[in-house]
Structure formats: C-alpha cells, structure tokens
Amino acid sequence: MNRVATPPSLPLPPATGGWREGDPPGRRSWVALDGPLRLESGATLPGVRLAYETWGRLAPDGGNAVLVLHALTGDSHAAGPAGPGHPAPGWWDALVGPGSALDTDRWFVVAPNVLGGCQGSTGPSSRRSDGSHWAADFPHLTIRDQVAAEARLADALGIGRWAAVIGGSMGGMRALEWAVGLPDRTESLLVLAAPAASSAEQIAWGSVQISAIRADPGWQGGRYHDAPPGSGPHRGLGQARRIAHVTYRSEAELGARFGREAQPGELPSRGGRYQVESYLDHHAAKLVGRFDAGSYVTLTEAMSGHDVGRGRGGTARALRRAGMPALVAGIASDRLYPPSQQAELAALLPGSDRPRIIESPYGHDGFLIETGHVGRLVRELLPAS
C-alpha cells in the first residue's frame, strides 16, 4: 500500500502551498527593502520584501517594540483567528493580546515572515522582476542573512532598538543572532529550545529531510512552481514533514497517545496503518497544503549552518557580546534540541543566570504547546511596569 501517494478522492495538491500574489492578504503588511540585500556569501538579493504582522501601537519613542520570531514552518501569523489568508489560528495566539503575556495594551509586537519563507516574504516561490519564480536560483541563506533583513524591516518601521527579541527553535537561532550581531538593538532576549550552533545530529536530521524532497521526481531540480496540481514535490515534502515531526515529539508522548494501536478500520497486517502512521500522514498533508518545498530546503539549510561563533572567535567569545538580560529555556523531553544545549547558552550568556526547563511530555513542540509556561517566562523578562 502506497501511503505517500495522494488518495484519488482528495483534491490534487498544488505545486506549492505557499502564499501567492493574489491570495487574500489576511493581516499581513509588507515592507520592500530599499536596495538589494548583501548576503553573508557575498551575493546580493534584489527586490526583497518581508511580510509581517503587528499588534498594539508603537510608542512615540519606539521603546515598546517586541520582535517575535517563528520556527521553521511558522509565519507572521503569531496571533489571531484562521481566516482568508491564514489557514490556521496564530501559533502563539494565547501569548499575544490585551492582558496576555505580550500585552498589546503596552507592547507593540512585530512578527515577520522569515526571509526565504513562503508566506509573503521573498523566497524560492517568489517572482523576480521578470516574472519568473526564483526557484532553484534562489541564493543560499544563513540565519545572519535573515536577521540582516529583519534589521532593515526594523529600520523601515522606525524601531531602533527592540525592548525584547523572542524566538523558539529557528526563531531562537535568529534571536541569538540579533543579540550577538546587533546587541545595541536588543534590550532583552528570550531563547526557547534552540542551540548556539547546530550539532552533527541536527544537521543529519535536516539532511535526510532535504534528501526526501530532492528525491521526489516532482522536485524537477527545484523548478516546479508552475507545474499543475499533483505534479509538484508534495510527496517529498510530506515525507520530510513525517521525519521532522517524529523529532518534534517525545517517545513517551507518542507511546502514551498511540501505542501500537491500528488506525480504526485498517489492519497493518494487510497494508493498513498504525494510528501513529495516520497521525504523521495527517501532519504531512497539512504542511503540503500551506508550505513550499523550496522554502523548506532553504530554511533547513540555514538552520544547519547556524553557528553564532562562526567568524567570531568561537561560541564563548561570541556570546560575550550579548550582555543584555537574557532568559534561556529548554523543554525537558526535547530530543531534537536537548536541554544540554540551552544549559550551555545560559552558562555563556553574561545576562543569563540559569536555564529554565519546561517540564512537558510534548518534546520540542513544547515551546509552542506549553503557552502557560512560556507566558510566565515572557512576564519574567518583561515585568509589568
């Protein structure tokens, strides 16, 4: 039984699930960068736009701005309901709003879609000035390149210094780069479930996901964006999501939730699925409907290259640049970015006293699910005045 092929009763998936020009904008706004963006590789990227969303009102002195940075398959929709332009509710909806941890009666919250993403910001699925998609010609990006673009966004919004930069997973990598690369623009820092540098195992997990996408005949060397529905690399992207999702959850949670139970109405001995397989299929299908395979590759490669110490004399020396108040938190059951990595960060950041460990069965995804714990950390970082 081929569990990867799209069942014939379902609509064929689009070549890319990313946001496209002409789709409903939702809550997004856009900033077009003034001039090309010079990348760490030495290349330049012209015509860069960043999509972003905001909540609250910027103070006259700009001192109440908070930057919230999303993870690999997140986007600018950190808060708010699902609706036209937004297939799902905000990924940190419980944390942003009046009276919430990020109280929008006090704070001006900004969440950009990352450079290289596919939900309104310039990435592989975007069109160039000649109308063609960037596709395989999109340049290699680093986390530092993404932060450089976000700094230009801050300039355009009139924000010289963030009251706090907050992020988890890939967003935590970018938050660290803000603190180390632009410490004069980062007043305080919250890093969740992220390392100072990606480890060999983390690079390996990313590599097998990228390989799954590139092995899909629909990948077409990365030039698939104009393919008809059902002809894009949705099989490879779905397989990459299955692999990733196993690393996002804990063994204990999967065991308690699914055990060895078969999916109702299916017999594994006759080609049917276990419940856990159906669960992975569900998450694969959801991602295929809202994400772009080229962005997945671009962002995963950027995460694999993450190393705050590169070119700065090593990790310890680089982190000494970040003297602002800092909180570093990990998830006790995280097997992708284990708490030992957050303990290293907390020990080396001058403004951090100790790592905060969130007890959760949910693994790496705990930074998204355990919003009560995360909210308490935000309030510790940004106490009420």
Walk me through what this model shows.
Strand 9, helix 2 and strand 10 form a beta-alpha-beta unit. The chain is an alpha/beta fold and 385 residues long. The chain contains eleven helices and twelve strands. The radius of gyration is 20 Å and the shape is globular. Helix content is 31%, strand content 12%.
Radius of gyration over all CA atoms, rounded: 20 Å
Q: Estimate the strand proportion.
A: 5-15%
| Average pLDDT reading | 96
Question: Helix proportion of residues, in percent?
Answer: 25-40%
According to DSSP, the number of beta strands is 12
The class by helix and strand makeup works out as alpha/beta
| Strand line-up across the major sheet | 1-4-8-5-9-10-11-12
Label the overall shape: globular
SSE order, as H and E?
EEEEEEEEHEHEHHHHHHEHEHH
Number of helices: 11
The main sheet comes to:
8 strands, mixed
- Kindly report how far apart the N and C termini lie: 60 Å
- Quaternary structure type: single chain
List the defining traits of the structure above.
globular, two-stranded antiparallel sheet, 385 residues, 8-stranded mixed beta sheet, 31% helix, alpha/beta
